[in-house]
Specification:
Helices cover about 5% and strands about 45% of the residues. By secondary structure, the chain is mostly beta strands. A hairpin with a 7-residue loop joins strand 8 and strand 9.
């Protein structure tokens, strides 16, 4: 398969997170209830969105046809990561409370970006991209203390570093799936990723704030999927990733 009329088609692409490390800083006033602030480097893993998209935890939409070598507008359609281990927050003089930290997309702010694709043969090549990530954080308490989750929507409640400007190190793509299990979107053409996609973010003083490795998402069987999903992640998230159901149903109209 080659590009038609030399143009990249509009479409939807699917990625899964190998591992991500992110500096998370939450001031105490954002947590409430006498809690101390949080400022640590957190390791995240992917939380697959739905079985229909295999182990995909990131869905990227290309919003327009594009020329090779020219910027193509994009946006994140859905995103789901969870801390690899619980985080610890002190509450007054009591014993610390532990939380699973979940990250989805803000329901109040888009996460737009752009990608530049390069190719010599019209079939495959390299790309560079950048995106502004506006997440929703959920701190879900663990243990006997229980309690309600703490939600922080960075679209309306900014915290240090967010929305975050992320960029990829040059990575590779192809129009043709490399395996029969590559997740694809039939209502709009998908592009497939042939190696790890390395993503980074830097602060004002050029300090590294985030580093993430993603790869092409794969369809997996129920046994494999169970290894990825610690809980039924999307169920309590009905006000986030608002457009995921439309894409899973095969629609492409905005």
């Amino acid at each position: 398969m080659q590009l038609e009329n030399g143009l990249l088609p509009r479409g939807v692409d699917y990625l899964t997170t190998v591992v991500a490390k992110q500096r998370i800083t939450i001031p105490p006033e954002k947590l409430g209830g006498g809690k101390e602030g949080f400022d640590e480097l957190v390791t995240f893993i992917g939380a697959p969105l739905f079985p229909k998209v295999g182990n995909a935890d990131t869905i990227m939409e290309r919003l327009e046809e594009g020329k090779i070598g020219s910027p193509v507008k994009t946006r994140l359609v859905a995103f789901a990561n969870v801390s690899a281990a619980p985080i610890r927050i002190q509450i007054g003089d009591d014993e610390p409370t532990y939380f699973d930290l979940y990250v989805t997309l803000s329901p109040t702010m888009e996460s737009p970006g752009q990608t530049v694709f390069y190719s010599d043969d019209g079939v495959s090549g390299a790309f560079e991209s950048e995106i502004s990530l506006a997440p929703l954080f959920e701190l879900r308490p663990l243990g006997a203390k229980g309690g309600s989750s703490i939600f922080i929507d960075t679209g309306i409640t900014p915290i240090p570093g967010f929305p975050m400007r992320l960029g990829t190190v040059k990575s590779t793509w192809t129009l043709n799936p490399t395996t029969e299990n590559d997740v694809r979107h039939f209502a709009g053409r998908s592009i497939f990723y042939t190696g790890e996609v390395m993503i980074q973010a830097y602060g004002e003083r050029h300090e590294l704030l985030a580093a993430c490795a993603k790869r092409q998402a794969q369809l997996v069987d129920e046994v494999d999927l169970g290894r990825f999903a610690r809980i039924d992640f999307p169920t309590p998230k009905r006000f986030t990733n608002l457009e995921i159901n439309r894409w899973l149903d095969g629609g492409t109209k905005r």
